[in-house]
Amino acid sequence: MSASVASATAAAAEALAANAPRSVNAIPSMVRYGPIPLSDLADKNNQTPGAAIRQIGSSRRIFLLNPELTTSEMEGLAARIQLLGKNTSLSSILLANNLETDCDVDATLPTSALEMEKLAEGERDLFMEEVLDLDYSNKEWIVAAGYDVTRVPSMNQDERRRMLNSMTKLAKAVKGSKVSTLNKSEEYVSKIPFISVPHGLITDGGYAVAMGSYVLATSESRFRIMNPMRGLSLDPIGLSYILPRLGWEFQQPSASYPVGSILALTGYEADASDMIETGLATHFMDSVGKLGSVERALSNLAPYDQQKLIREPFKRYGETSENSFKVDINSKFRNAAVASLMHSVSAYDAMGQEVTAARDEVNFLSDEDPSLILDADRASFFGDRESMLLNIAATFQDAFENAKSIEEIMEKMREHASAHASNEEEAEFVLAAQSILEDMEAQSPLALSATHKLMVIGKEAKESLESCMEREKKVQLKLFDKDDFKNWSKSGVKEGEFKDWKHKSVKEVTRDEIEELFK
Question: Which of 15, 125, 329, 360 sits at a 20 to 30 Å CA gap from 272?
Fold first, then answer.
């Protein structure tokens, strides 16, 4: 038995002893340093896991090795994250997709200075030769997509329900909670910050891995909802609660526009700027090469229970635990170092919006001596930030916010798309409307109608994240059995290219058909 397999087995035994489900075995956890061949992590069927966890100092690093996780893997990852979130001997949990998926030694982070230092000189040279030999110039990074949708038709109803339940558990585990707000229990309470670095595309329920404390977007980060193009709706991770409230947390301009509706109903692919300006991501990291430095810094931070500056009061003789001092006087210092690190490695965050004039860029650091500052340490000037998603939402606000039905939204977009353009600006407006309308018409009318209703209900003040998750699950389970999804899955056609939907337009979808999905 190799050292990596032995450490993974021991970690699984510890998790089972903590009353975790047996599915934790689907996600190996290791303490070995240095590169780990994926063959060491394969099961008896030679299948490598969709994710793996490694101990790195006071932090834990989660590697996403496959964007599509099995039911057991989602359950196992959720259980492990729940346990880690309560472990006060940790400083943080860091999740990112593996950046070396074409390399045989890819269960490690190649940019990590901490890992490289622990390799012998010969091993380090061999590893770097393999890494440098890979060409990523045209690679399309895919971070997370939730489950493998092509396997759903072969599942029975119980298997589908368990799969969606596991996705919900994963979303809750990543999000965590400071107080018992989810399920009114201590199950998902977490003290340890969860940090995601999605270097690539996240689709649909894959966003569950980006619902933690911090989301560091990179130049490759993107988010898109593709399910309506498959005859499906929102995966049960609470998107019908999250999307209508984009921009609220950081009081951003996007809070005043229907950015969530654009994402849910049009299949628009949000880039890193869109994610930052709507709050889907909390920070922008201008170079993914900083990931190794982030990992190293997190590993050296003091654990949660050691992050304190004020000495706790002495317990008096005869004092019992019932009447002892229970308030954590160091609460304001805990996790502050992690927050400071996120700020220092990021170019900007969702909270800030630079307001600058053109002359400011010319005068930026003009009095700095270039001979004293290395290029890598030089500050960047970003100026005003812009989001195409926000621009689209502001332009077509009347259609997506004021319309009372999906049919009315598409009718208004059809009017905009057929308008006569008398100048260049109006021509751009018409082209944008035509593009959005075309994307909406490429989706299943039934799934699109269901998604719209989920968004309308989820926007109501009385709704909670959990209530939206349960409603999304109910609708998705029923859509799995509808003709649209069955026909799309049999066709083998890519999302957006399938046209043989049961209804030719949203006008043909009856109210009874929609109501039946929500019963």
Answer: 360
C-alpha pair distances (Å), 6 with each of 12, 30, 31, 478: 10, 8, 10, 43
Q: Burial-class residue 465 by CB neighbours within 10 Å (0-12, 13-18, 19+).
A: buried
Distance CA 396, CA 158 (A): 41
Secondary structure (3-state) at 191: coil
End-to-end CA distance of the chain: 52
Q: Which amino acid is at 486?
A: K
**Who contacts 428 (Cβ-Cβ below 8 Å, separation ≥6)?**
none
- The string of DSSP letters for 56-104 reads ETTEEEEEE--SB--HHHHHHHHHHHHHHHT-TT-SEEEEEE-S-TTST
pLDDT bin (cut points 50, 70, 90) of residue 109 is very low
User: How far is Cα of residue 78 from the mean position of the Cα atoms in its chain?
Assistant: 14
Which tokens belong to 272?
């890193």
Burial class (CB in 10 A: 0-12, 13-18, 19+), 134: middle
Q: What is the 3-state secondary structure (H, E, C) of 330-398?
A: CCCCCCHHHHHHHHHHCCEECCCCCCCCHHHHHHCCCCCCHHHCCHHHCCCCCCCCCCHHHHHHHHCHH
Q: 295-345: per-residue pLDDT in tens?
A: 889 999 999 888 887 776 666 676 665 555 567 777 778 889 999 999 999
d(CA 82, CA 65): 20
Closest CA to 249 of 202, 219, 195, 211: 211
CA dihedral of 464, 270, 394, 398, whole degrees rounded to 10: -60
Q: Which amino acid is at 145?
A: A
396-417 burial, b at 16+ Cβ within 10 Å, e below that, comes to bbebbeebeebbebbebbbebb
Name the CA radius of gyration of the chain, rounded. Answer: 24
Query: How does 319-332 read in b/e, with b if 16+ C-beta sit within 10 Å?
Result: eeeeeeeeeeeeee
Length of the chain as a residue count:
519
Cα 93 from Cα 62, distance rounded (Å): 7
Tokens encoding 311: 């000495």
Measure the CA dihedral 255/258/259/261, to 10°.
140
pLDDT for the residue 318: 66
pTM, two decimal places: 0.84
Side-chain-facing half-sphere of 344: CA atoms under 13 Å: 11
Please state the φ and ψ torsions of residue 189, each to the nearest 5 degrees.
Answer: -70, 130
Helix axis angle for 511-518 and 445-458, nearest 10°, is 60
Contact in structure between 68 and 112 (CB atoms under 8 Å): no
Other CB atoms within a 10 A radius of the CB of residue 167 amount to 28
Q: Single out the residue of 213, 243, 181 nearest to residue 472, CA to CA.
A: 243
